Structures are given as C-alpha cells and as structure tokens.
Fold:
Amino acid sequence: MSGTDTGPPDVDLGRVWLGVAAQVWRREPRWVERLAGRLLRSPGLARALVTTPSLLLGWLIATAVVLVAGMLATLGTGTPYVPLLAPAVAGAGIAYAYGPGIDPAWELSRSMAVSDRMVLLVRALAVFGLNAALGLATSAASGAAAAVTFGWLVPMTAVCALALAAAALARSANVGVTAGLAGWVITVLAGEAAAGRLTAAITGSSLVLPYLAFAAVCGAIVLYATRIPRGTS
Structure:
C-alpha cells in the first residue's frame, strides 16, 4: 500500500470523521458553556473551555478540599499553609489544562478553526483565575496577613508557567505536574534554608523580579512549543 492511499475507495473517510465528531460533541450546551460562548464569541472555544480536565467538577472539588485543609491547618498552627499550597495546586491545574493524553476532546480541538495556542491560552487563564480566586478566599478566611495573602500570586504565576512549559514541551500533563511541584518544593525549601522561615518563598520582595523573569522565559517556551509548524495553516 502506498503512502498516498487514504482508505478503501467505497468509504468516505471525511463523512465518517464528521460522524465521529458529531457523536463526541453532541449534547445540549449548559448555561456555563452558553455564557462562555457569548463572552468568547466562539462556541467551539467555549466547548474546549468547559471540557478542560482541571475545570471539571471533580477536579474543582479536589482543589477546594486541599485549600480548605490548608485553611484549617493555618487556623490551628498559625503557619500560612494556604499561600504555600496554592501555587502547587494551581500549577497542577495548569498542567492539566494541556490536552494530550488526558483530554477526550484533544484531537477534535486540534481540528477546530481556533488555533491550539488560543485554546491553551483561554484554558490556562481560566484555570489560573479560578485557582487564584479560591486561594484568595481561603487565605482571607484563614486570617493570613495581607502581605502573605497577595505575596503568593507572583510565585504562583512562575510555578504555573513552569508547569505549562514542561507539559507543552513534553506533551504530557504528568510531566508538567511533576516539574511544577518539584520546582515549588525546591523553592520553598531553599527559602527556608536561607532565611530560616518556611514562608520566605512567598514573603521575600527581592524574589518578585526573578519570579516574573522566570515566568516570562517559561511563557516564551510555551509559545515556541505551541507554534504552528511552517507550511501548515
């Protein structure tokens, strides 16, 4: 069989693929998807957003449970565990916003008119924003100091960028999660060894610029990894 064969002559593969796509995408959009479609002005992009693995109900419940546990530990010990947990939780969620191997709609999302990069950007921003809101809510409920409450947003950005860059380069969400968690644990332990405080990684103002610079580098890696290959549309 030559490399130019596309299948049996009596089978219309295009029609078969349309049938498969119709079965996967067929369902009545819920109000969240309809709202996202109006905001994004793209029903396809809205469907890609609501099928994001780390935005599904089970994942959101798990995220809330982890942050609530951190809030209770903060109330019991006085150590701000929520700001320490939030970047790691958000980094894992960002890694699982990238589709290969985990997203049932991954192949179909690649066939949409919307670019892979736009789909990933919308998903990542949604996951980041939701995790930031949950982290802020649980930090406020635990009575953490304002400096600590908002200080973890910058390292959270760096951890998320690292996780997304690793996932995009390796084409594996699990690799992204591992890189993000390992990077954050190393950062926290190094800060504690240098300053003698567990919270040094989220309270040191001198780390803001390095965090932002690192996040920018990882963002450039994501853009490179999700580029459209030359010669394709």
The chain has a mean pLDDT of 80.
